[in-house]
Amino acid sequence: MVHADVTFRVQGNAPAFWYQQTGQTAPAPYAIAGGRTNVPLQLEPHEAVFLVFRKAAAAPSRAPARVTEQTLGALEGAWDVAIQAGRGAPAKATLDRLTSWSQSSDAGVKYFSGTATYTKTVQAANAWFDEGGQLWLDLGDVKNIAEVTVNSKPLGIVWKNPFRVNVTSALRPGADQITVSVTNLWVNRLIGDQQPGVEKKFTYTTQQFYRADSQLLPSGLIGPVQVLRMQARRGAAQFECRTVTCGAKICAPASVTCGSPPKSARFRFGRRARNGMPASVTNWHSRISVSSSSSMVPSSFRLRSVIFVRPA
User: Fold this and answer.
1) Are 298 and 273 in contact (CB under 8 A)?
2) Same domain, 227 and 241
3) Do 141 and 222 share a domain, yes or no?
4) I need a surface site. Which of 110, 136, 170, 206 has the fewest CB within 10 A?
5) According to the model, what pLDDT value does residue 279 have?
6) In which domain, by residue range, is 251 found?
C-alpha cells in the first residue's frame, strides 16, 4: 500500500475521487492552505484513481472517511466449475475446496489456460442486512482476472488486489447464486504443450519460451471467498478557531467565524489541562460554554485550539 500527500494548485474547490472501474465518485479528504490544496492518498497495489475538483469547498479542510470492515461469512465447501471447451480440460468439475488449477492431478486442468466459471449457492442470513452499510464479496486470491455475477446480475470485473466486488444491489436474504468467471495466463498451457508424449498442442509460438520443467503459475479462484460488511463514516468538515483563554467554564472570544452552528466540538487543552477531557459545547452565540467531567480542569485554563466539527 502506498501513502502519499499530493498538493494541487487549486484553491476553493473540494476534491472528489472518481473511480474509473465503476464510474462512481466519493468525497476526498483535503486541506486548503496557501493557495493550494493538499490531498492525502492511500492506494492499494496497482490501484489508480482520478481526483476531480468540481464543487466549491464548504470548509477549508475535510477529514478522511473512517471505514470499518466486518466478516459476515466464508463461502466454504464445494464449487461447481464449468471449463472453457477446446483447451484440453474436462468440460465440468466439482471442487471440494478452492485451490490452484496447477495443483490438480488431472493434466487437462493442471495445464489449462483459459476461462473457468465457478458457481455456488449460498444462504445469506437476515442479519447480514440488519445494520446497513455495504455488502462486498471478497474473492481472496485470484489468478488472474475475475468477473462476478450474483443472481444473474453482472457486478463487474476485478483484476488487482483486493479482489472485491460490491454486491449490495444483488445479494438478498436467503438463497443466492454466486458466479465467478476466472481467466488465467497462457503460461501453464505453453508448459503443458512441452510435456513428453503430448500428441495435440493447443498453442503455437515462434519461439519456445518455456520448457517441460518450467515452473507452473498459480491459476484460478484460490480464495478464501468471504462476504464482508463495509461501513464508512464520511470525514467531517473542520473549522478551526483562534486560540482563546478561558476562565472557569466560560470562554468569550472577541469573535469566532466558523460557519454554521456546530453539531459537536473537539478541544485541545494547553499544558495545564492536557488531561481535562472530554469537553463539550453547551452554547453557541456570543460566547462558548465549555463543560468537562474531569477533575483535572483547573478553575482557569488556556485552550490551545478549538475545532468545531459539523458533518460534511
Assistant:
1) yes
2) no
3) yes
4) 206
5) 38
6) 237-310
